[in-house]
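Assess this today:

___
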Amino acid sequence: MSDPRITSSIFTRGAVDLSALRTPAPAPARPTAPAQPGPSGGLPGTAGGGVSVIDVSEATFQSEVLERSLTTPVIVDFWAEWCEPCKQLSPVLERLAAEGGGAWVLAKIDVDANPRIAQMFRVQGIPMVYAVVGGQPIDAFSGVVPEAQLRQWIQAVLKAGGVTVAEPEDPRLDEADDALMSGDLDAAERAYRKILAESPADAAAEAGLAQVGLARRVAGADPGAAIAAAQANPDDVEAQLLAADIEVLSGQAEAAYARLVGLVRRTAGDDREKVRQHLVGLFAVAGPEDPAVASARRALASALF
């Protein structure tokens, strides 16, 4: 299994010579008949009247891939009927193209029926997937890759093409979030950890896992009593940590951060490290883009150094 290469280091831009496929032949008219299943079993999707999955031949390559890529990123899927890995990857690509809402187009090319195109792209094994932007290939990968990595690769292609699109919903996160909201913390933790095993940098999953920990820590606590205990015992580390947790859950995250930064200043050794780690865990609940987190991180750095 090969990982998608997010950068274009796989080859120099323009290294694939497509000049032989730039023919003056006019593109065939768009079909108006009802869509039929494609070779891999998928149906062409539509978004705002635009096609999201198309079958491409040598006769239509110029119009459907090169010219189309001048305005819309095109991802080319080289496949064949006999290719078992293709049958795993192609349906995922088709589904993501439909989810894309017209932000990009999936062009499917049967290597057996179109050997000259495959030769031009130097396809040595399939499945092979190329991204074409501005009339030129900009990146590629081969083999079957996990859907999470495929989504990241597509997002990188869209950015390279100057396309700004909303991040697609991740059904794995939906499942994990539903478990969290229903109070099934064990199921939520398993779901978030599974996402992080597949996508270690997934900020949403990290935040979800941090919320599971927060929910467990405050389970059974009396918010009013916890805050009162913290006010009465400013140097009681456990009381301050619980009060900060409750403040975060009640929408007073900035107060929680300030509480723990102050505690970092007043403690030392193991207690100080425990408070620091707890505060960093609370940062994960909000996510790194939260302005309050950025401000609190600066305050924490000042308290530590």
